[in-house]
Write a structure and sequence with these properties.
about 40% strand, Glucose Permease (Domain IIA), globular, about 270 residues, single chain, about 5% helix, mainly beta, Immunoglobulin-like, 2 domains, binds zinc ion, 10-stranded antiparallel β-sheet
């Protein structure tokens, strides 16, 4: 184990990132929905919450689920040596967002509830995938330059009723704007869902699955290999949407994280060290 003092995050990296590791006492804090990295030459595996995965180069990236609380044990293996850092999950920093949608999209009929349950059962296994990494960071934004996504983590209140927090980012964009794959990968789900509308899920290997929602049209099929930048659909307003926009989300090793963190240089992610 390394001493507590060594856990102080790199100040230079902190200034550049939206999800700093806040040094507080001797135990570093991580932000729900954020990512921290831990690098050392000779790293052979990374682990968190019972999952084990391969590092990217010499770096373990630890995604912190949006709904994580308490403490997390971040693990790595260096040759024959196992190391663990226990980090504290910090406060939930995201604001509230109030939206008005048709009542049937908030108070679901029994048939719609059953449909959502079926769709969730189809999606859940995707978060277990841990293939060979087929991507590199940063990812390519899903829309052409000039569009900016936001509102990750906002606490959603639909028609005055609190619902799940927003686990992706929304890009306001005109209908029919082409939507592209953020990295090479394989389409693992491409279908219409109650809330997400026309949706495409791409497995990029390395435990990373990206998703785009509310499409006007889907341009790919399940099992299809796509390359970074390939058109996979077009912006629309299908599903629970108040107008044309793109919802872009990622799950990494099962965790809901802010996808915009993966669209910038990975060196900007907060680091644990050494
Ligand atoms: Zn959204």
């Amino acid at each position: 184990m390394t001493t507590a003092g060594a856990w102080l995050a790199l100040a230079g990296a902190l200034a550049l990132t939206a999800t700093p590791v806040l040094a507080q006492g001797s135990r570093p804090e991580v932000v729900p929905g954020g990512v921290v990295r831990w690098s050392a030459q000779g790293t052979t595996s990374c682990s968190l919450g019972g999952r084990i995965w391969a590092p990217l180069g010499d770096t373990c990236y630890f995604p912190v689920d949006l709904l994580a609380t308490g403490t997390l044990d971040l693990g790595r293996t260096l040759g024959a040596r196992d190391e663990t850092i226990t980090v504290k999950v910090g406060r939930y920093p995201y604001p509230e967002q109030r939206l008005e949608v048709p009542d049937r999209m908030v108070d679901l009929s029994p048939a719609d509830q059953a449909r959502v349950a079926r769709e969730n059962a189809r999606i859940a296994p995707l978060w277990e995938r841990e293939g060979v990494p087929g991507f590199s960071l940063p990812l390519q934004p899903p829309l052409p330059p000039g569009f900016k996504g936001d509102r990750f983590g906002s606490r959603r209140v639909f028609n005055n009723q609190p619902r799940s927090p927003h686990n992706g980012i929304d890009y306001k964009a005109p209908a029919e704007t082409p939507v592209t794959a953020p990295a090479d990968g394989t389409v693992v789900l491409a279908e219409e869902h109650f809330f997400a509308g026309n949706s495409v899920f791409v497995d990029h290997g390395g435990g990373l699955v990206s998703m785009v929602f509310h499409l006007a049209r889907i341009e790919v099929g399940v099992g299809q290999r796509v390359q970074r930048g390939a058109v996979i659909g077009h912006v629309g307003s299908s599903g629970r949407a108040t107008g044309p926009h793109l919802h872009f989300g990622v799950r990494w090793h099962g965790a809901r994280i802010d996808p915009s963190l993966l669209l910038g240089p990975p060196e900007n992610l907060p680091a644990l060290g050494p």
